[in-house]
Amino acid sequence: TQVAPLRVLICDEMNPGNLEHAGFEIDYGGNLPREETLRRLPGYDALITRSRTKVDRELLEAAGERLKVVGRGGVGVDNIDLEACSRRGILVLNAPESNNVSAAELALAHLMAAARGLTRSDRKTRAGEWDRKFLGVELKDKTLGIVGLGRIGSIVADRAQGLRLNVVAFDPYVPENKFERLGITRATTLDDLLAQVDFLTVHTPLTEETQGMIGARELALLKPGAIVVNAARGGIVEEGALVDALSAGHLFGAGVDVFVDEPPAPDHVFLGAPNLGITAHLGANTREAQERVGAEIVGRVLAALQGDVSKGA
Ligand code: MLT
């Protein structure tokens, strides 16, 4: 008798690579409307998402008993209700490394864009205003503060050193020798970091601990004229507080790639904020990263499903 293939649904846009794998049926849906994901899901053993799809109780209920594995094509698993998955015995996998370089490069792109007023000058020039009065700031010999010295934060630090920035980082979970190895000054507290940096970038996951970690009080501790970048997760830097600090002229500029709610509402506070560069959660969106992410997450999910089968589950 023929064994039925194990079925995998990819419900967010990605580059999944080769979809032909013996013993599996992999359906690539691109950015599937949520209702369609919910409707189709009961027929699948695994689901692969990016950050767009919320894997919450509603989705898991809709999936029923068959779903065994959820794969996240990317790093952050904050769109997945891990507790609900674990209660249902669903394994959650991510692709923790594939897009780190791209994410780090986008953070630095935001820093440079803010330092030189790129988006502002682009807007003005298109509107017919030839404004050459704007004076940017050089990065060289300034101090970059990194909150979160994990995989992405470490790459940011390395590249920043190439730009002759001094790097200070705060990460209570990273051992001292990593700071030494990377040639980075360790800040013992967040406040200590904030007080000494010219530029700030956050590279932590979104957790209860990091949500709102950079609020009005923390922004006020930064030197006047500082630049803030959030290419990690919306809400690590409080959105309203960031806009207030920009509007008050306390910050020179900022760059954000992420929002608390994505896509943002048409009246989102960021959209009218001065000196703020915005991108649409593009940190992982490079050809190279997406090739790696797709191959890594599909490979990990198939291996997990196979493992499941060999255990006779
Ligand atoms: C990530 O956590 O790796 C990114 O959010 C990936 C993505 O863009 O989906």
From TrEMBL:
<keyword id="KW-0520">NAD</keyword>
<protein>
    <recommendedName>
        <fullName>D-3-phosphoglycerate dehydrogenase</fullName>
        <ecNumber>1.1.1.95</ecNumber>
    </recommendedName>
</protein>
<keyword id="KW-0028">Amino-acid biosynthesis</keyword>
<comment type="pathway">
    <text>Amino-acid biosynthesis; L-serine biosynthesis; L-serine from 3-phospho-D-glycerate: step 1/3.</text>
</comment>
<keyword id="KW-0718">Serine biosynthesis</keyword>
<keyword id="KW-0560">Oxidoreductase</keyword>
<comment type="similarity">
    <text>Belongs to the D-isomer specific 2-hydroxyacid dehydrogenase family.</text>
</comment>
<comment type="function">
    <text>Catalyzes the reversible oxidation of 3-phospho-D-glycerate to 3-phosphonooxypyruvate, the first step of the phosphorylated L-serine biosynthesis pathway. Also catalyzes the reversible oxidation of 2-hydroxyglutarate to 2-oxoglutarate.</text>
</comment>
